[in-house]
Amino acid sequence: MLLKTEKPEMILRQLEPEDIYNLYNWTNKPEIASFFVFSRLPGSIEKTKKFLNSQLEGDPNNIHLVIEKLEPKEFIGVISLKNINWIDRNAEYAIVITDKKNMGKGYAKAASLAILKYAFLTINLERVYLNVLSTNLRAINFYERIGFRKEGILRRHVFKEGEYVDLLWYGILKSECLELLSNGL
């Protein structure tokens, strides 16, 4: 799968075997991994290989795409539609930009708009949702800017770096996203 974005200098592409070290390295960066619910450092190369192999074999319920800059070729991050529920027409969204030098340059927005268009217009989902730690203010602001709405709070749900943190749930409906896109988001 290959998705073009509003930024001609970048694409979203399928994971490849050569991505193993990029995946392993960012999951072990404390400044990145500290914002993820699943992260319990250190990660292992074996766990990363298992994840990558499951994706290379083709998992119809999870789509993980590399955010890649074309010139010069650079692995910028990963964007996902996970836990796709084909009956209820919903999926969980996730994104990571793996290096601070690539943050604030519009890559996350372009990748997110491309995958949301894919979710709602190509595979006909009705709802896309996400969860985020309440301490990840940069991500929360970003999600709200691209149309996600807060739907719930799981209070003191995650034990992270010595303290309990709230887990926030956000969602966006197909009709909401299409309206935002038609208004030039």
Automatic annotation (TrEMBL):
Listed InterPro entries: Acyl_CoA_acyltransferase (IPR016181), GNAT_dom (IPR000182)
Limits of the N-acetyltransferase domain: 10-171
Origin superkingdom: Bacteria
Cited SUPFAM superfamilies: Acyl-CoA N-acyltransferases (Nat)
Molecular functions (GO terms): acyltransferase activity, transferring groups other than amino-acyl groups
Entry protein name: N-acetyltransferase domain-containing protein
